[in-house]
Design a protein that fits this description.
Blueprint: H1 21-28, E1 32-36, E2 39-42, H2 44-63, E3 67-68, E4 74-76, H3 77-83, H4 85-89, E5 94-98, E6 102-106, H5 111-121, E7 130-139, E8 154-164, H6 167-187, E9 193-196, E10 206-213, E11 219-223, E12 230-232, E13 254-257, H7 264-271, E14 279-286, E15 289-296, H8 303-309, E16 315-317, H9 323-327, E17 343-346, H10 347-350, E18 355-358, E19 364-369, E20 380-381, E21 400-414, H11 416-421, E22 424-426, E23 432-434, E24 436-443, H12 444-454, E25 456-457, E26 460-461, E27 472-476, H13 483-497, E28 502-504, H14 511-521, E29 525-529, H15 531-535, E30 538-543, E31 550-553, H16 557-586
Parallel strand pairs: 3-7, 15-17, 17-20, 27-28, 27-29
Antiparallel strand pairs: 1-2, 4-6, 5-6, 7-8, 8-24, 9-10, 10-21, 11-12, 11-21, 13-19, 14-15, 14-16, 18-19, 21-24, 22-23, 25-26, 29-30, 30-31
Helix pairs in contact: 1-12, 2-6, 2-12, 6-16
The structure holds one RNA strand of 77 nucleotides.
Length: about 600
RNA sequence: CGGGGCGUGGCGCAGCCUGGUAGCGCGCCUGCUUUGGGAGCAGGAGGCCGUGGGUUCGAAUCCCACCGCCCCGACCA
């Protein structure tokens, strides 16, 4: 490619609306162009990166035995009613009406469609196991698109779905995808961690997320450095903290007037006590019944944990209007003493000597309440989100919380969709059994964003070799016909013939201008051909990730550059293999 | 959906408070000079001032409504 005939609109200044590094740099490097909130054009350079990620994904999915197909984005709404997700997906589902009055949806994910395909075409255990995948545009009516291409209303996703005859087969299918994901992200050169994840409304019982640590990430990951435990914050378990050593004789609790003070913040400020010594009673509807969770005031309730603690299928915050009737106490002044609904106490409360709680009476809070003495603690569970410093559930050491960007997610679905939609097969005894499913997603655009988030410096992007729009940029310092231009063109041709992506910066610009653009875009390898160097029989070669250039002789130039590229590719392969060996040594997830 | 901010050539901004010929830098076009880290000089093109309504002799500027974009929160298979 000759730069002069490319469309690469680099920007010297930072666009005002961009905040996240990946957003700023992809715009400045001329890779994307905004159409509207959460809708971006991939310009030629950006598209090349996207396609490279896509190619790596496709290769590894094929290698893992998954079969590629392509399903429609346009889907009848009935399918969503059939699975029950028309309700649970809610406003996130893009709905439209087409001619003839048909109600359709633009697919945000494809469990329904793939289940429909499989229920029609797979009927026997002999056809199992099978994993199907596609790389396709998804649509979600995100309430708040953000950070450039990080969260958009339309995005490219690789989604795979496994269908198995039994749980063991599902385990094998899951492991195959899990391993393929490692290979994909290793080849993309991304720094990532795998964390245990909440499977969420999609259901199921096992789930892992692949996260790239970066400040722009919207997820929070709890991690223990001592033992390596890592989980999404919403999934992370909290280890046991030492129980409070209570003085033998504590004074009885006191009722305090707290007129109008309803929130933890207000009450604690009013009573001049630390929020860490307060408690909050949260009321939920567990499968339609009112239940309560008692947490330390400054802690964050985790609805999934609370749902499980109550053994409920569905948990939702109770409607405030319904609370007084159910509990006999006014909202804002709820407390654990003599509460009339089932209550589970969070572990952390056990570590509190005394606690400030609501008095179950308007404008009254109680101080000096002793857990276990003043109210019954018959059920204790982990009900909250882990915080930095909380004990690791495995080893008890303090965990840390870091931001992460989710690029991939694998989970075991079970029979949620196959049962709802009647996707069954006949086993070797002729018995009809619902298929067991797993699903596996990769945000292709997010690989691009994550690579930039994880790979940039003050001068611009530093692309991993396998994702770069072009691996090599050849810069002739003068573009007038002559030896410099001829050498540069020859070099570019030879590298291209050897199978590398090359762009020749044939623009009639000063050297500094071209260097700035090359650094901004982040081509991994830069080759400079100048008159001065040529006279000395030398050309310059510089890796974007290194600070110092190397010089090679003109005579062996092509071979030297090819050797450099081969070495870089070998190193990357070796790193992938080393990671693989480490995984094998560590055993299954 | 709640809170905050912003809409003025392709990009970054000033002008608005106090109404009266729309301005600067970058980029773009032409020419000359320059050529190893975003060159200099000269000339030039390009703007329904987000949209609609109102006030006024007169609106980028004041008022009202709407639309759009960004950030925080809620939400996020």
């Amino acid at each position: 490619m000759r730069w002069s005939s490319a469309l690469i609109p680099t920007l010297k200044e930072t666009p005002a609306d961009a905040v996240a590094p990946s957003h700023v740099l992809l715009l400045r490097a001329g890779m994307i162009h905004q159409l509207g909130a959460g809708a971006y054009t991939y310009l030629p350079l950006g598209l090349r990166v996207l396609k490279k990620a896509e190619a790596i994904i496709r290769q590894e999915m094929d290698a893992a035995g998954a079969l590629e197909l392509l399903m429609p984005a346009l889907q009848p709404i009935e399918l969503w009613r059939e699975s029950g997700r028309f309700e649970t997906f809610g406003d996130l589902l893009m709905k439209l009406r087409i001619s003839g009055g048909h109600h359709m949806a633009l697919g945000p994910t494809h469990e329904e469609v793939v289940t429909d395909v499989v229920r029609d075409l797979v009927n026997s255990y002999k056809q199992l196991p099978i994993t199907l995948y596609q790389i396709q545009t998804k649509f979600r009516d995100e309430p708040r698109p953000r950070f450039g291409i990080l969260r958009t209303r339309e995005f490219l996703m690789k989604d795979a779905y496994s269908f198995d005859a039994d749980v063991d087969q599902l385990g094998a299918s899951y492991d195959a995808m899990y391993e393929a994901y490692h290979r994909i992200f290793d080849r993309c050169g991304l720094p990532y961690v795998v964390v245990e994840a909440e499977s969420g409304p999609i259901g199921g019982d096992a789930s892992h997320e692949f996260m790239v640590p970066c400040d722009t990430g919207e997820d929070r990951v709890a991690r223990c450095d001592s033992c390596g435990y890592a989980a999404n914050q919403e999934k992370a378990e909290v280890g046991d903290a030492p129980a409070a050593a209570r003085a033998a004789e504590l004074p009885p609790y006191k009722a305090e007037r707290t007129p109008g003070q309803k929130t933890i913040k207000d009450v604690c400020a009013f009573l001049k006590v630390d929020e860490k010594t307060s408690g909050k009673l949260m009321v939920y509807l567990a499968d339609g019944k009112h239940v309560a969770a008692l947490l330390r005031g400054d802690h964050e309730a985790n609805e999934a944990k609370i749902r499980r603690a109550f053994g409920a299928e569905v948990l939702a915050p109770a409607d405030p209007d319904s609370i007084p009737k159910a509990t006999g106490a006014p909202v804002g002044f709820l407390g654990p003493i003599d509460i009339k609904i089932p209550m589970i106490v969070d572990k952390a409360v056990l570590a509190m000597e005394t606690i400030v709680v609501g008095g179950n009476e308007v404008d009254v809070h109680l101080t000096g309440v002793v857990p276990g003495r003043d109210f019954k603690i018959d059920r204790v569970a982990d009900l909250r989100n882990a915080d930095a410093g909380d004990p690791c559930p495995r080893c008890g050491q303090a965990m840390e919380i870091k931001a992460g960007l989710e690029i991939g997610h694998v989970f075991k679905l079970g029979t949620k969709y196959s049962k709802a939609m009647g996707a069954t097969f006949l086993d070797d005894k002729g018995v009809e059994i619902p298929l067991i499913m797993g699903c596996y997603g990769i945000g292709v655009n997010r690989i691009v964003a994550a690579a930039v988030e994880a790979g940039h410096d003050e001068n611009g992007i530093v692309w991993p070799l396998n994702l770069a729009p072009y691996q090599v940029v050849v810069i002739p310092l003068t573009v007038k016909p002559g030896p410099v231009m001829e050498t540069a063109e020859g070099l570019a041709d030879r590298l291209r013939e050897a199978g590398h992506d090359v762009i020749l910066d044939d623009r009639d610009q000063r050297p500094g201008f071209k260097f700035k653009d090359a650094d901004l875009i982040g081509f991994p390898l830069r080759i400079v051909v100048g008159e001065r160097g040529l006279k000395e029989g030398k050309i310059e070669l510089k890796w974007r990730s290194e600070s110092e250039p190397k010089t090679v002789s003109t005579a062996t130039g092509v071979e030297a550059v090819l050797a450099e590229l081969r070495t870089a590719e070998r190193k990357l392969r070796e790193a992938c293999q080393a990671n693989r060996a480490r995984r094998e040594a560590a055993g299954k997830p």
